[in-house]
Amino acid sequence: MVPRRKLRRVVVVAFENAQLLDIAGPCQTFASADELGLADGYDLTVVSQNGGVIATSAGIGIATVPPRAVRGPIDTLVVVGGHGVAAAAADRALIVRIRRWSARARRTCSVCTGAFLLAEARLLDGRRATTHWDACRALQQRYPKIRVEPDPIFVQDGAIWTSAGVTAGIDLALALVEADLGHDAAMRVARRLVVFLKRPGGQSQFSAPLAAQAASDGGLEALHGWMADHLGGDLRVERLAARAGMSPRSFARIYAAKLGTTPAKTVERLRVEAARRALEDGGAPIKQVAHHCGFGDEERMRRAFLRRLGVSPSDYRARFAG
């Protein structure tokens, strides 16, 4: 007799004008894991407040079940985000249901601005959490009891997992599959999904050069381009200020006002990103990568990687080197 497979029940909470990829990304990740025919798998349910077909923000309808269909224990509760999240957060009946479903779940997760629904249900009070980078400030201001972390792709705090926007829901779901079924199973799912990299949660939501491009005025864009070309050189504030034609004090003040961070943190992010690419694409010794990218020595690069990515350079290379 073929042994009966253990199925983990995944309940995805959706609403009108939800982000399509917030729903489809995690659902397809779990479904792909189930298709591998492993000893354990997943049983998916998408629920909405009234059931039936809901319209996503892409204009594509998604079939959902009503709340009464969600009975018994839940393994993983996933709350999605999207343009309709404000109306969903104002729906007290939905918020009460999310809180009750979470109490029956082994773990509770949000994708993108779904974090606002968990916050409204008071499930994030006193916890670390993240959301789409463009909504992090609003989440922190509206719910001051949360420790919002704007940079990571996803954050786990106990049984609560929150992720950044849109495609980060796939990274979150892959991490959940890895926690359930192991690293090899998660990598098989990633290959099936043709995901270029299975990103760790501590990796930044967007690249350092992309973030730097946000400051396109005041000569900073040209400065950032110069910094990226001279990562192995002296990038202390005094030299950057001289390059920008300012005093160090004025430069630091104007820079922080425009980018919301310090020049030193931008330099570190640019260097970490360059080191990441070197570790992924080549076989140069870590000591050589550290020197080439301007860290000076391996220990400084290791500390920067732990701050930015949550892993050491050697662990990063082991996971992601081509």
Can you describe this structure in just a few lines?
The chain is 47% helix and 15% strand. It is of the alpha/beta class and 322 residues long.
Structural description of this entry:
This protein is an alpha/beta fold and 322 residues long. The protein has 2 domains: 6-192, Rossmann fold (3-Layer(aba) Sandwich), CATH 3.40.50.880; 208-320, Homeodomain-like (Arc Repressor Mutant, subunit A, Orthogonal Bundle). The chain contains 15 helices and 10 strands. The chain has helices at 20-35, 85-89, 92-103, 115-120, 136-142, 168-181, 183-192, 208-212, 220-229, 237-244, 248-259, 263-281, 286-292, 298-308, 313-320, and strands at 6-13, 40-47, 52-55, 61-64, 74-79, 105-110, 128-129, 147-148, 154-157, 160-163. Strands 2-1-5-6-10-9 form a 6-stranded mixed β-sheet, with helices on both faces. Strands 3-4 form a two-stranded antiparallel ribbon. Strand 3 (52-55) and strand 4 form a beta hairpin. The radius of gyration is 22 Å and the shape is globular. It starts with 5 loop residues before the first strand and ends with a helix.
Largest sheet: 6 strands, mixed
Q: Superfamily at the CATH H level of the largest domain? A: Class I glutamine amidotransferase (GATase) domain
Oligomer: single chain
Residue windows where pLDDT falls under 50 for at least 5 positions: none
- Overall shape: it is globular
The ordered string of helix (H) and strand (E) elements is: EHEEEEHHEHEHEEEHHHHHHHHHH
Indicate the proportion of strand residues: 5-15%
Indicate the mean pLDDT.
88
